[in-house]
């Protein structure tokens, strides 16, 4: 192998290493969107939401949620993704939606099943 070619291979490997370590902190995201309607009837759409951790529906919460990702969700009535009672959370599979019953508490947060 010539010195010129060897230098090119080493440079390419170094650039690849830098690129992968630079992207590793970005975190994984789901493909698709999560849309929700808040208590003031505003529609919010989140594109490619994070897969890890607890995600908030904001201070107003969500009265309706549409899962258009390739990942299933768990919706919670608490802001920190805690299951307080058996009725305080639901499983929302991919491509499905949920609307709360009249008089129910809004969904306040969600997490992804991965």
Task: Label this structure with key terms.
single chain, 114 residues, alpha+beta, four-stranded antiparallel β-sheet, 30% strand, elongated
What structural class results from the helix and strand content? Answer: alpha+beta
Low-pLDDT ranges: 14-25
Radius of gyration: 21 Å
Percent of residues in β-strands: 25-35%
Q: Numbering strands along the chain, what is their spatial order in the largest sheet?
A: 2-1-4-7
Overall 3D form = elongated
Count of DSSP strands: 8
Please give the count of helices. 1
What is the chain-wise order of helices and strands?
A: HEEEEEEEE
Arithmetic mean pLDDT = 85
Q: Characterize the main sheet.
A: 4 strands, antiparallel
Share of helix among residues? 10-25%
Distance between the termini: 45 Å
Description:
- With 114 residues, this protein is α+β, with helices and mostly antiparallel strands.
- Helix content is 18%, strand content 30%.
- The chain has one helix and eight strands.
- The strands form two sheets. Strands 2-1-4-7 form a four-stranded antiparallel β-sheet, with no helix packed on it. A four-stranded antiparallel β-sheet has the order 3-8-5-6, with no helix packed on it.
- Strand 1 and strand 2 form a beta hairpin.
- About 11% of the residues have low confidence.
Outline:
The protein contains one helix and eight strands, in the order H-E-E-E-E-E-E-E-E. It has 114 residues and is an alpha+beta fold. The termini are far apart.
């Amino acid at each position: 192998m010539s010195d010129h070619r060897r230098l090119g291979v080493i440079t390419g490997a170094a650039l690849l290493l830098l690129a992968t370590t630079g992207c590793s902190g970005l975190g994984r995201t789901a493909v698709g969107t999560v849309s929700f309607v808040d208590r003031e009837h505003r529609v919010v759409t989140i594109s490619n939401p994070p897969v890890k951790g607890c995600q908030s529906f904001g201070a107003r919460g969500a009265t309706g949620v549409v899962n258009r990702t390739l990942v299933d969700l768990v919706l919670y009535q608490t802001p920190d993704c805690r299951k307080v009672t058996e009725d305080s959370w639901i499983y929302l599979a991919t491509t499905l939606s949920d609307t709360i019953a009249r008089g129910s508490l809004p969904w306040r947060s969600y997490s992804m099943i991965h």
